[in-house]
């Protein structure tokens, strides 16, 4: 059984280290998408209202050292704005300065530690190094609340070892994520459609294989579709292709057919002369990507308009939809139409519509959709996929009695 905040007891005057996932995109130290910060607010507010002394901890990016551009200082500022109360920023995650700052907190006050990954031990492959860093973090707190769903599939010091050292519980965000994912795997309303995109088919093969017996149809777009088209014998030009996955993909298509699962593939593709926002482009049939006036090096950058309609119809007619991965290079307006069509269709689902984190979550915000239009937007793309694959996630297992 998962230990949750409801099992944590009286939190007044308790020092609580809250592991969030505040790994937000930055441009010149400016936050370009604060979705993960906003996702952390419910648990923070619950803790402060209970009189806890809240020590927020997170990583940001993958620093090789203490890189200034990956400091959590901008996150502290935005967190303070969103909460409407002071958030004290610690320029270190452990050590005397951090301990002095956190020990000075009063009931209901909040501090944010500097990027945990500035200490290499956080992500070390050596359990002893991780345990030592975890002990330094544990020395500042009475209990731990784990709420960074985007990292629960990682065995890292602040996610796993810390939870072994002091009483630990799942936060409200993790509870919400698990409720939705369990619904997807155990009690989905039908028709149940999974829409997958993104760059690599290898990233999604396991989840497709695990979900095939549970779903009615799988729609495949994005860069990964070209490996599927190649497995069907089509030429894909210079499109993104994982040659070593063609045979495996072909076997998966056969298995889907044997199970009676409908595989929806693009009938047309938006191809371009180069990978750039203003590249010359045109729509061609999915089995004729090489037949183009654009030159020999054409590549697919989006599903075509007919495909977008087909995908949208499949989504909007479903009772349960899980979507992970954009349909094209949505960062380029000319190649965002497929992704926008799928997102729009999800807002019309009369049932459970789940945006599976990662680039899909970034896309719906970048394209201007109201997050309230979706039943759930996950904060953890990789964690969501691994959970749907049926894998054991260390950061969740350590929270189970």
Can you lay out the helices and strands and say which pair or pack?
Elements lengths: L14 E5 L6 E2 L2 E2 L3 H5 L1 H9 L3 E5 L15 H11 L3 E4 L5 H8 L6 E4 L13 H12 L4 E4 L10 H9 L2 E3 L1 H15 L5 E5 L8 H7 L5 E4 L4 H7 L14 H14 L2 E3 L3 E5 L8 E5 L13 E5 L1 H12 L3 E5 L12 H10 L5 E4 L2 H9 L9 E2 L3 H8 L5 H4 L4
Helix pairs in contact: 5-6, 9-10, 11-12
What does this 3D model show about the protein?
With 401 residues, the protein is α/β, with parallel strands linked by helices. The chain is built from 15 helices and 17 strands. Strands 5-6-4-1-7-8 form a six-stranded parallel β-sheet, sandwiched between helices.
Report a brief summary of the structure:
By secondary structure, this protein is of the alpha/beta class. The chain contains 15 helices and 17 strands.
Largest sheet: 6 strands, parallel
Number of extended strands: 17
Low-confidence stretches: none
Q: How large is the share of residues in beta strands?
A: 15-25%
| Molecular shape | elongated
Structural class call reads alpha/beta
Overall average pLDDT: 94
Percent helix: 25-40%
Radius of gyration: 22 Å
The end-to-end distance, rounded to whole angstroms, is: 5 Å
Largest beta sheet: strand ordering = 5-6-4-1-7-8
Number of helical regions? 15
Task: Quickly list its features.
single chain, 401 residues, alpha/beta, six-stranded parallel sheet, 17% strand, elongated
